[in-house]
Amino acid sequence: MNVFITGSTGFLGGEILMLLSKRDEIKKIYCLLRAENDTAADARLEKVFKLHGDFFDRNKVIPVIGNLSDDGMDQQLIANEQLKDVNVIIHSAANTSFAKIYDDVVKKVNLNGLQQILNWSKTLEHLETFTYVGTATIIGKGVTDRLIFEDESPSANSVHFVKYTYTKMMGELMIRETLPEDKILIVRPSIILGDSRARIPRSNVILWTLAAVNMLRLIPVRPAPKLDIISVDYAAYAIDALLFTKRNHTVYHISAGEHSCTTNLKLTEAIAPHFSDRPDFKFIPHKLLNQIKLWAKNKLPADAELHQHTEYLDYWHEVFEEKSQLRILFGGMDPYIEFINLGQVFDNKRLIEDTGINYPEPVHDYVQRCIDHLGNIDIMEGALDP
Ligand SMILES: NC(=O)c1ccc[n+]([C@@H]2O[C@H](COP(=O)([O-])OP(=O)(O)OC[C@H]3O[C@@H](n4cnc5c(N)ncnc54)[C@H](OP(=O)(O)O)[C@@H]3O)[C@@H](O)[C@H]2O)c1
Fold first, then answer.
1. Is the CB–ligand 1 distance for residue 196 below 6 Å?
2. Quick check: 364 pLDDT over 90?
3. Ligand 1 near 44 CB (within 6 A)
4. Which one of 19, 39, 212, 286 is separated from 3 by 20 to 30 angstroms, measured CA to CA?
């Protein structure tokens, strides 16, 4: 079997690549990545393998330079003779930014880029499976506080907080229009947070938000709604298992589900004892988010409800050099705060039944092994590029 993977320098794609590189059934793994030249491409892959001490077999893992933003990348791939025998495509690359200023790039990479890969995939004589790494959150913001099933998406009715989830939904539709059903595998992870193996993950995607919550302590979210979070190693393991199992479905949630989901409260309770020098976590109504933003601009009216939490405002004065940092932080966290307030849990029966893998370990348990790393994350860096 020969595999072509995109996004292997990323958080999830890197973990998928590691698992695939250990599989004897796979002869070659071609990795599409952005690089100036062959030396730089090799160095980028080497870095991915080095991070957790994995073995980089250059006879098996081969870089293919390409940028999903480039029109004409499909022709580049079609002209590449070594890719003619690819059987399995795993499209994990995406621009995952939630920031509005990146909307055009997000669209370009996630839709035009996907179209390029699809155009090429149609020319492959031996293509067996096109694996699309989607996201469970394409369900949108209209569905709250309940268990959600794979067949509910994509839906024309879904309303999206961010362009990113919209493009991921449209991506699924594009694939279905282009390829026959029996060649499609759509995997939809829920929220991927950190690594359950007590390792520093390949990237701090989303994990920075938990580090930010841990710093802020006063949080404008509901404590009780269920939260569907999995670790990156579980996500990769589940995708690898699906690739090598007899599948009864085209679409699978890769999620915590009812069995392993958490809540905002459980998650904060899990980390609280490790940072006992900080104020207790306190959940406040979401509507106070605007007051926090006003406070950070020195425009909070004297009679505003937020003043009831003066001890936290004093604490923020202590830990943030400038109030503008808080504005940046909440600006970056805005869409995440919306998501974790939704109470969405994604059913994972299909995954568990077809692969026989275990349910994931709940995040409030595995996060205990990420504590050291959590305290060291630069939250401003995450907020500036959410
Ligand atoms: N993280 C989550 O919580 C989550 C949840 C559900 C679904 N997903 C899905 O999982 C997939 C992987 O996400 P992730 O968290 O691993 O994201 P990530 O760490 O940001 O990785 C994104 C990958 O895409 C590549 N990429 C971006 N723009 C590109 C371009 N123009 N040309 C070529 N490659 C490009 C990046 O390459 P560079 O290294 O060159 O930037 C990187 O390898 C995505 O499809 C995402 O939608 C993620």
1. no
2. yes
3. no
4. 39
| Token duo for residue 213 | 């919550």
List the one residue out of 53, 49, 3 whose CA is nearest residue 28. Answer: 3
- Sequence-distant (≥ 6) Cβ neighbours of residue 218 within 8 angstroms: 279, 282, 284, 292, 309, 312, 316
Neighbours of 285 (CB within 10 A): 11
* Assigned token pair, 26: 């796979």
Distance from the CA of 311 to the center of ligand 1, in angstroms? Answer: 39
Residue 333: partners with Cβ closer than 8 Å, 6 or more residues away: 209, 212, 383, 386
189 lines ligand 1 (CB under 6 A): yes
Query: Any idea where the domains of the chain sit in the sequence?
Result: 2-205+227-258+344-363
* Residues 123, 120: Cα–Cα separation, whole Å: 5
The domain defined by 2-205+227-258+344-363 carries CATH number 3.40.50.720? yes
d(CA 266, CA 281): 11
**How many Å apart are CA 270 and CA 370, to the nearest integer?**
11
Q: Give CA–CA dist 5/145, Å, rounded.
A: 35
Name the residue with higher pLDDT: 382 or 91.
Answer: 91
Confidence of residue 382 (pLDDT cuts 50, 70, 90): confident
